[in-house]
Amino acid sequence: MTVEVLIRAVNNPTSAQDLVKNVAQLAATKDEQAIPTLVEVLKFNNPGAAVAAVNGLINIGEAVVPYLLENVDGYNYGARAWMLRVFAGIGDPRALDLLIEAANKDFAFSVRRSAAKGLGNIQWQKVPDSEREIQQQKVCDCLFLALEDGEWVVRYGAIAGLEGLACSINDTQKMLIKEKLQVFMNSEPEAGVRARIEKAINTLT
Length: 205
Fold this sequence. Notes:
By secondary structure, the protein is mostly helical. The chain is 71% helix and 0% strand.
């Protein structure tokens, strides 16, 4: 089926399950023509369809970012949460400020977790040299704060984010992250989170 036919199918489903199937088929095309329709799906009250749309948008990649930035829905929280997951998956630095705010301030721990983890995926080569170190420090500070989150899944995401960030920064900052994680491990109550810290430390060694 053509992209146009698949878009019509998404816009005219026969059931909730049919919508999920149609969105998955449209997402699989990885066609930029599908971007507006997939973004619109994020506003529907259908988590299965939203997950398929998120995956499709992430697979399309950076072409999604300008449209998504223009259509971030400040009134539909559910749609905004799904959009943040897309930004986290793509790692485009144009969404950096949105991800930083979400990682520390969003009321949904699942959004904080995905934003924190996504901050480890930022494509730093797209940030001008003159700005890169400042922006990386902002991300580092954000993730250090996320390590203090009351929800263990957010702390887990922050560790993954710090591990990813450390692969893109200078040795001095990398050592700072490693030392912070070593100190943090001594006070972390969750065994799963401690194991994730140990993995990150080993990666940074």
